[in-house]
Amino acid sequence: MGLIKIFSGEAILAFTLKEKLEEASINVVIRDNNQANVLPSIQTSKPVELFIQEIDYGKANPVIEDFRLSI
Question: In this protein, which residues make up the domain named DUF2007 (predicted)?
Fold first, then answer.
């Protein structure tokens, strides 16, 4: 079993979805490729990605759908 990407977008939305999933006892892996701390002169904002275990997808899908409908 592996990780599947369930979200890619703005950090505020990613962290909101992460909180909702964790409330449902689903572990979330965050991938944030923002290099602003390393290269402060570069102001490119890359999307934050959320991943979950494949086996948790069935449990997470209703939470994800509710979140998508609310934005």
Answer: 7-67
Task: For residue 19, give both structure tokens.
Answer: 């909180």
Handedness of CA 30, 9, 58, 24 (dihedral sign): positive
For the chain, the three-class secondary structure string (H helix, E strand, C coil) is CCEEEEEEECHHHHHHHHHHHHHCCCCCEEEECCCCCCCCCCCCCCCEEEEEEHHHHHHHHHHHHHHHHHC
Going by their DSSP bridges, the two strands 29-32 and 3-9 should be labelled as unpaired
Q: How many residues make up the chain in this entry? A: 71
Q: Which two tokens stand for residue 4?
A: 């599947």
Q: What is the spatial distance between Cα 28 and Cα 24, in angstroms, rounded to a whole number?
A: 11
